[in-house]
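Sample A.
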Amino acid sequence: MSAPEGWTVTVVGIGADGWDGLSPAARRAVEAAQVLRGSSRQLSLVPDGVPAERVPWPSPMALAVRELPDAHPGRRVVVLASGDPMYSGIGTTLVRWFGAAAVDVVPHPSSVTWACSRMGWSVEETTVVSVVWKPVELLAAQVSPGRRLLVLGADGSTPAEVARRLTGWGYGASRLTALSQLGGPTEQRSTGTAADWPHAETDPLTITAVEAVADPGTVPLSTAPGLPDDAYRNDGQLTKRDVRAVTLSRLVPLPGQLLWDVGAGAGSIGIEWMRVHPSCRAVAV
């Protein structure tokens, strides 16, 4: 899909610090807009003095985003995005659908940048896992002793779900920090271990920092093919460890590839295929 000839859109990242946190370039873009699109929360961060028409996204919003070029013909449209629009944000979606030439992005610090600054972590040494539209189970392949992770969640229940999963995987001693409303006037942090996590709900705008600590007796699982047979819950009909290791080495999975596993059985080949890299996918038949 490509944008109509001559159509462009500006995407402005905005954080929990709202209007005060915008750069002069971002403010100029918003003030020049004739139409502002964003969530109701994002639109509420823009001062009343900005005259643009404010149109919140419907839920689900995918169709409205695809129809954006036809929704406001001849008008300057600015889309508001949380933080960095190109980091798991709507900027990435707009570029994918309409092309980079049609999308002008004015970024803001991402929640990952904010979280690493608050934790004192190096960004390049921190693993980021998004479970916004995906199951928390995807975190399993990234957990190992001593590893630092940031989990981008869908809502305020994510920290508790991460804690529950870590405890079940033998990482109940892991240290969790829920960082909410980063950079804003109501910024908060909650800390605890996975096994004793006290908060069923946190603010919806929360990122979860994990310092992985294995419980005594926990055997860490590598992302390399050939997991121990007892890593799987099965009825005995399981491709054995050495066969899995050889099979995956011959399949040579690469990032972004899709595996169709016909006659998958317990699905162990597909599982280990996907553990090689977060972008690997598998379909079991």
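Sample B.
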Amino acid sequence: MTEDEFRELLAGQGCDDIRDSTFEPGHHTELHSHQFDAQLLVLEGEFILELQDGKHIFKVGETCKVLSGTMHAEHNGEAPTRTLTGLSYH
């Protein structure tokens, strides 16, 4: 998926909190959850999402969605990762 396609998708869902983020190599979060749904598009590098069912690796052009309350951890590899994330609050 392209950045423009993803922005169009988010707009169609009424998402108005869109964040362009860059994570330095070795970025890692502990297991946590959010009070919002998050949809993410990888623009550069790779994004690694750990869920109860295992580790999922997303590469450039791939998307993922983490629903509110879902326990997860996020990290990347040895290269910077850039993502575009849309947040939907309940």
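B remarks: The helical segments are 3-12. The first helix runs from residue 3 to 12.
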